[in-house]
Amino acid sequence: MLKGRLGLDSAKVPHADRAGCLYLARGALTARDGTLAFLQGERTVADALDPGDYAIPLQGVSIVLLGPGSTVSHDALRLLAHARTALAAVGEDGVRLYTAPPMIPDRSGLARIQARIWADEDLRIMTARRMYAFRLGEVLPHSDLNVLRGIEGSRMKEFYALQAQRAGIEWRGRRYDRANPSSTDLPNQALNHAASAVEAAAAIAVCATATIPQLGFIHEDPGQSFVLDIADLWRDRVTVPCAFRAAKAAKERPDENVERLTRRMTGEALAKDGIIPAMIERIKALIEGRND
Question: Which whole-number Å values give the CA distances from 72 to 1, 46, 56, 78, 107, in the listed order?
Fold first, then answer.
């Protein structure tokens, strides 16, 4: 039925040979002549394509990220499923992940290696040390995860203070009330919103690589442990700087919402610096044991 209705025989291109992510927003994703088409209306924001009718390389990407203001047809969903191309509904610039159907990739290599590493205590600690090395710029000699967490926590306190000074905001320490996140001061609120945005980007990267979100190497209990691991790799470079810039802007412009400011600034950084593709490559390097 799929071949006769949509003109597609089978998915031939392995994900290893695909380009990765394709972000589309404010248009209609449909199926036409056995492939995808995206009708882009009048361009109103920077993340949209120029107006026009675009043919989408269905088997040339691993995941389509569908941004705000978009619609998708039933036939397009069927076509994506048959080609094993995932579709995720995301916020602007990927700062929210609303849904992501299982990719069901043609290979399970990364997930199997991840499970093997996670199940081996020595390999798990080695991977955690590599993740801390990426963040801290040095390989810590310690083999106790709690010691590694303590060192990272101590350095983050200093980092928060330094970044706050650079941003020109008052910093009284990290505080987070899970029951009432908005009760904290502006810098802490902005950190919460920036962290959520970067975690969404990490969730997209984990989805795109078909790795196992529950099997983290530093985080353990949350169902999104590996997502949190990957998001933390960019805490120093994206999350904290964006949050503190947003906090300063919110203080100077009290009529603007701190969440909106933070999401916008974080989204711009994610898009400008290609963070999601970088996360995908970092996941592959971590799982495959490469140092790039």
Answer: 20, 21, 13, 11, 27
Coil, helix or strand at residue 41: coil
DSSP class of 62: S
Whole-number Å distance between alpha carbons of 104 and 85 = 9
Q: Is the dihedral of CA 75, 79, 82, 88 positive or negative?
A: negative
Q: Given the structure tokens 């299982």, which residue do they identify?
A: 102
Residue 117 near residue 124, CB atoms below 8 Å? yes
Count of C-beta atoms within a 10 Å radius of residue 156: 17
The CA distance from 271 to 260, in Å, is 16
Q: Measure the CA angle with vertex 286, ends 282 and 288; round to 5°.
A: 115
Per CATH, the number for 109-288 is 1.20.120.920
Residue ranges, CATH 3.100.10.20, the chain = 2-99
**pLDDT tens-digit profile of 146-173?**
999 999 999 999 999 999 999 999 999 9
CA separation, residue 195 to residues 128, 200, 234, 255 (Å): 20, 9, 10, 23
**pLDDT digits over 51-64, tens only?**
889 998 888 888 89
Q: Considering the entire predicted model, what is its pTM?
A: 0.75
* Domain ranges in the chain with CATH number 1.20.120.920: 109-288
In this structure, are strands 86-90 and 71-72 parallel, antiparallel, or unpaired? unpaired
For residue 46, count other CB atoms closer than 10 A to its CB. 9
Q: Which CATH superfamily is domain 2-99 in?
A: CRISPR-associated endonuclease Cas1, N-terminal domain (3.100.10.20)
* Banded model confidence at residue 48, pLDDT cuts 50, 70, 90: low
